[in-house]
Design goal:
By secondary structure, the protein is of the alpha/beta class. The chain is 45% helix and 14% strand.
Length: 309
């Protein structure tokens, strides 16, 4: 089944060097994988992936230096531009941004859009404790909304609270908690009401939101006057990670069925696991063939319509 992969990663050399410099060992408690564009292309051929949108994973590129953050974003975006030019029918990328530096981020957004051929942007759930959804980034959201941009959220190490990981690798639980906290922040700040044209992709099938929504929906309705169920229909969700047999069916009770897209999470998810998860999704009796077609291909193709023109 042909597919569009909206959650897959690349690792520029400068980013890898920065990880080795600032976080010796395994960042997030998870090994940093090797990566070559040939690996992405091989994976695409094996799984009949027609188009992959590359982005940086966690940790975010801000290690405490403004200049370094700007340089790492520029390097990632230049490599994304090069790969897009070399493989225009197969590869696109989400531009990285030097958050939380607002003015530098606005400049990077303009360059990524006008010169570097990005199909959208990737943002961390938080960068050094500044959470996506916080009002401090209002100028950034305004520009993203003006562009009607695709914005792929990616989990980062939780800052509130740090003990959310309880000494386990951060991707196991910490990523899910940080993604969910960010979603609640977005509801609280009326992000979706103020910036309705941003197409936000929430990773890993919405993290804990599918099972938490009923718990928080009443609060947001009564205290904030917000309909969480209605807003959730406007959000996009990817299927990166192990989402079956429980998480994805729960998400499908919450999300618009045309807003769920495929994600492999390669190479942080190794090739064997990508294959197993792909087959699980392709063969599960929990989804109809029409629903599988939507998730693997149709929804992603519609979301990226501008990139395919």
């Amino acid at each position: 089944m042909k597919s569009i992969d909206l959650h897959t990663h690349y690792l520029p050399k400068g980013y890898v060097a920065a990880l080795e410099k600032h976080i010796p060992g395994d960042p997030d408690g998870w090994p940093t994988p090797s990566w070559r564009v040939e690996d992405t292309l091989d994976l695409m051929e094996k799984h009949d992936i027609a188009y992959s949108v590359l982005s940086l994973s966690s940790p975010h590129i801000n290690f405490g230096s403004r200049n370094e953050t700007i340089e790492l974003a520029e390097e990632a975006n230049e490599l994304g531009k090069e790969l897009t030019q070399n493989y225009p029918d197969q590869i696109g990328y989400f531009a990285s941004l030097p958050l939380p530096y607002v003015n530098d981020t606005l400049k990077a957004m303009e360059r990524a859009t006008q010169e570097q051929k990005a199909v959208g942007f990737t943002v961390p759930t938080n960068t050094r404790g500044a959470y996506f959804g916080s009002e401090v980034f209002d100028e950034v959201y305004e520009q993203l909304n003006k562009q009607k941009a695709i914005v792929a959220l990616h989990p980062n190490q939780p800052q509130l609270p740090m003990n959310a990981t309880i000494d386990l690798p951060i991707p196991l639980m910490g990523f899910f908690f940080d993604t969910t906290m960010t979603m609640l922040k977005l509801f609280q700040t009326r992000f979706f009401e103020k910036y309705p044209d941003i197409k936000l992709i929430v990773p890993h099938a919405g993290a804990v939101m599918p099972i938490l929504t009923d718990r928080v929906a009443g609060y947001f309705r009564n205290v904030e006057g917000i309909d969480v169920y209605e807003i959730s229909k406007k959000v996009y969700f990817d299927t990166a990670g192990r989402v079956l047999p429980r998480q994805l069916p729960a998400l499908m009770t919450l999300a618009d069925p045309t807003h769920i897209v495929y994600g492999s999470d390669a190479p942080y998810t190794d090739a064997r696991s990508v294959d197993l998860l792909y087959q699980d999704l392709a063969t599960t009796p929990l989804l109809s063939e029409a629903e599988k077609q939507q998730i693997f291909d149709t929804n992603g193709r519609a979301l990226l319509a501008r990139a395919f023109k």
